[in-house]
Amino acid sequence: MSQAVEGSIALVTGANRGIGRAIVDALIEGGAKKVYAAARSISSLDALTRQHGSVIVPVELDVTKTGQIAAAALSADDVTLVVNNAGIAVDAGADFADINLEAAREQLEVNAFGTLAVTQAFAPHLKRNGGGTLVNIVSVVGLGSFPTFVGYSASKAAMHSITQASRLALAAQGTRVIGVYPGPVDTDMAREIPMEKASASSVAEQILIAIEAGTEEVYPDPIAQQLGGLYSSDPKGVERAIAAMSAGAAVA
Ligand SMILES: NC(=O)c1ccc[n+]([C@@H]2O[C@H](COP(=O)([O-])OP(=O)(O)OC[C@H]3O[C@@H](n4cnc5c(N)ncnc54)[C@H](OP(=O)(O)O)[C@@H]3O)[C@@H](O)[C@H]2O)c1
How far apart are CA 163 and CA 165, in angstroms? Predict the structure, then answer.
């Protein structure tokens, strides 16, 4: 089951910058009819609105705020495509011993439970509008944990679990659920990560291809492809590969 991007009506969370913004650009280039660009601050969407005009509908949405999710779902009831992109990586690069538990909880709240809450709010609209597609921007660290990102990794593992549950729960209503598992991407979030990074636009391009093809798992860059391949064939190998990456060694 696949979906055409052309003519779709999408909602993208965290649309004001990074991967979210690149997804909005790609959707509009692909012929989306309307994009609800959701962000914590409406004014952060000004550049996007100036660039694309009235195809963009700005929506104020902090994915941890129940009232804002309910209001967004009331107004954006014609969606056929929902992208859970909003996320934070508070403990990126911290030593394992220094991981702050409060920060770890905050990442779970935004990355995992924010995704679940938005999914619950918009699933009935997707159903009513013919099934549609739900895209969750997870991460390779959801498949194997980095000790210097342990709170973030745990939140993305939870998001992976929520993605699997959403796929099963929404299958009967005809909603396709796509999990996206990028490696490092060149955005504000990964600024301090000293690794090769994919561009946000290349990740967005792979996501659009997956929406059109109906692919359920997307590994949009070389690191993602390496770890995603191991996850399918040799799950324990993911740990070994991450150990090698963490040590800065070449990965076989
Ligand atoms: N960059 C990477 O290496 C990488 C790799 C794998 C997966 N990802 C995932 O890709 C997604 C996008 O990340 P990015 O790299 O584009 O990061 P980014 O440039 O830091 O952008 C994060 C976006 O999420 C929004 N956001 C944060 N907390 C939010 C909340 N409570 N409610 C609503 N929106 C919120 C931010 O809004 P504000 O502008 O208001 O802060 C911003 O729009 C995230 O889920 C991230 O975990 C990123």
Answer: 5
